[in-house]
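Annotated sample (chain length 114).
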Amino acid sequence: MDHVSALPGGTAYVASFVEVWDWGIVVRMVGLAEGFVRQVLDLQLDLRDDRGGRYEWRAATSGGMVLPEEVTLAFDGRPSESARSLQLMVGGSGDVLMVAIIPEFVGDDGTGAP
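Output written by the structure step:
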């Protein structure tokens, strides 16, 4: 990840990581300007995969002592085994905010080891 992108309004951010857990998918983004968290939380975000799967928004946390303009988004469900990428999109417009490639094999510990 760690690629600088911009929200539809132009505010820059870095997509820090995407994690897949038993209960769902977590996306962490760090804003590079004040007001980023508010802007992200105002967007209607969708998480989809390249096979047509959609993941329901579950929760968001924001702000931190070190990085006050960070937001962590959680979505329900695990990607299907045939999915190869996830796209975080703005629901109404379909603008893609980020794409994460799903590794071919991720072990139970998340390291890629069987």
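Annotation: Residues 36-42 form the longest helix (7 residues).
Annotation: DSSP finds one helix and nine strands in the chain.
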